[in-house]
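This entry is passed on directly below:
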Amino acid sequence: MQKLSGKIAMFFLGAWLLLSGLNALLNINIPAIDMLLPIVAIVTAILIFTEIREKPTQQLGMLLLAVWLILSGLFVLLSVAFPAKEVVMAVLGIAAGVLVLIRR
């Protein structure tokens, strides 16, 4: 990810991670944070998809990260629940993290 869209995607990813972490740790009372975080997650994922669309198999970790971000955003916005949701999201997150770390 070297293009401008990749830099913007990384900015949004960083902002989402920072806001999510601060919200969880400090229980910050930011108005509409429950709507803001899922929207930022989905925007970030769309930006990642536009960046890796040419060679998605070479950037499988970023692809899985984008899928994870979209699902986590949609689950909150649409109040989606199913029995194994946490397990599916955890496995997807671990797979994305491992692949991002080894740059696959």
In short: The longest helix spans residues 4-26.
